[in-house]
Design brief:
Layout (H helix, E strand, L loop, with lengths): L1 H9 L2 H6 L7 E4 L16 E5 L2 E4 L4 H4 L6 H9 L1 H22 L12 H26 L25 H8 L18 H13 L3 H27 L12 H8 L5 H8 L3 E2 L31 E2 L9 H36 L3 E2 L5 E2 L5 E3 L18 H6 L1 H5 L3 H4 L6 H19 L5 H8 L3 H4 L11 H13 L2 H7 L14 H14 L8 H13 L20 H10 L22 H9 L6 H4 E13 L6 E12 L2 H8 L3 H27 L7 E2 L13 E6 L10
Antiparallel strand pairs: 1-2, 2-3, 4-5, 6-7, 7-8, 9-10, 10-12, 11-12
Helix pairs in contact: 1-5, 4-5, 6-8, 6-9, 12-22, 12-23, 16-17
Amino acid sequence: MISTLLKNIVNKEQEYRASNLTGLNTSFKSKLPAKEWGPLGKEEGEVLVRDNELLRGTLDKSAFGASDFGLVHAFYEVYGSEKAGELLTSLARVFTVFLQTYGFTCGLDDLVIDRKFNKQRREAIEEGHREGLKAAAEFCGLQNYQPEKMNLSNRVIFQSKKNFDKDFDKLTKMALKPNPFEGKKCIQLDNELRRALEKKMFAAGADLATLDVDLDSAMQGRMNDATSKVLKEIIPDGLIKKFPSNNLSAMVMTGAKGGVVNQTQISALLGQQSLEGRRVPKMQNGKTLPCYLPYDPNPRSSGYISDRFLTGLRPQDFYFHCMAGREGLIDTAVKTSRSGYLQRCLIKQLESLIVNYDMTVRDNDGSIVQFMYGDDGIDVINTKYLDKFEFLEQNFNSLISSGHDIISKVDCEKVAEHKKAARKKAKKLKAADPSLSSKQALEMTSDPLLSIFHPHKFFGSISESMSSSIDDYTKKQCQYIKYAKNEGRTLKRKYKPIEPDTFRQTYCMKYMKSLVHPGENVGTIAAQSVGEPSTQMTLNTFHLAGHGAGNMTLGIPRLKEILMTTPYNIKTPFMKLHFRKDCGMSLDDMQKFTNKFQKIRMSEIVKKVQVFQNIKRDQMGGPVAFSRVYKVQLLFDDVKDLIHNLGIDSPRLAQLFSETFIPNLMGEIFKQLKKSDDASNAVLKVPTRQIGAGDEDGATEAATGDDGAAGGKR
């Protein structure tokens, strides 16, 4: 059926023979793994098309979906957009008739897991809970903590007498009773780990949010490692019905609809529910829901759902799942307007940029933005197959059939003459200096071809990188070389492989056909290329827990920061440095050099802040004046490490702190005082002791007046 479609779409039989077309020749990997067809289908993982005949392979999303190098993409590359449109229309009609004739449906038996794998699933869930509790214990400092053997997911498993399993029964008996008052038991049992976690969180104070992020990161990492390995084995191998009888698996594996995540949530478990990249947040009292104890270490209390859609969710888990779903809805609604406005701003700025007849990109006033579009003049849509030399060689006859009109309208000799003269000069230069390579000598004798010869007017004017790649291919990998060495067979015995020079000319013709057309509104296309993916981005800024350098603004806020604001207001500036090899710097020296450019906040290096208050009486021949004096003492944490990482000595650090930081701090305090009180009598004394001299912790003292800044009258 597919072969018939391909042959009839290309041309009628008489035209097909008259135009000397050989048909489409391509091969590509299918999305469906070959192992799913069993031992007899080892070759079905690769689709092979020769002369418009489908010889083997499974046609799925990679063949006629939005995938690179698939059947439709190759068809478009060889025969053009009109024929590719006919192919898609014909395939759509064939598929519609097939579904009307045979039907396609999913039943419950497509979702059920085998008993053996279901047992593995339960064990994996319990193991994941235990690993999470171990991570929480390590976070609290409880060494050698072993979680109690019990039903941590608190799930009752109903069994029939016919298929009774003792392990399942034992696990069910370990579950807590549903009535919290029966036997005076809480819904969740209290234990040593919960109390230790609660104590640590209460003692954290202002650092509570940071500790919570670190705990989430530690527990999620351990639990994901424990459960993901087993889930990969369960889905799809653990299902009672296997592919191809299982229609749900057929949909997921071929790429028609859905993914492995959907299949896992239906048949195995929902997993961790995420809100803004973290687990479910806790209330002020440390609970996530009223039915859980404060700072309950059990992963289930923080949104880890061990239930599946097939057997239903419990109320607490359903509530957590609704929270995650609501966040997705709000996120989508809010970011639609923001990404739309971002795209509008980009388009309004770039809409006047077009490609001119001299291949330059210019604004509406004629000012040049680019001397050549993309530096090579190639239209972006035609770039994919430009470096697929084997495909171009296999479809040689079809490609040259549409290129005769091009060659008759361009100059085919000047580029060849220029190359010949450049090679002669390079040969003389290399003879004078043998240390030069052929490539270096050629670069020194001539400017790039595209800067001398207009690619639309002169045949063979291509970029130097492409020319070098063609040389490598024709010398080592082309069919002509293999045929000469008898290492391979040609596609069709009646056709001999093309010679290297002929292939080079064919490629130059393909390159010329791939050039961008004058008048192309490349500015609008560039703006749309940025704007469309921004609708798929996450609105909120997620953070990498426990990694200070990794906390960066992401998603739409980052795009707005780059494109719509000034460079002076970037929240998370990022710079990439490449060190020269001849500098001889070690990794430690590079890190010290890099650290000098990083902004260090006082909260990151101060261990403790102590404030001392005194009332001072002043009487100097006049009325008695009282002032309140504050003495602020900052104790630094790991000053020696800070000095080492910055690559400076203690006096320099003390000087920077006293002469730069403290005056800036006092300036901010004065600003606040002016808003609320009279700071005309402000007196500032800043005695600074040398940092890191003889002490493990450095200390800086600041004696200030009223409200930490001035000695004001009271």
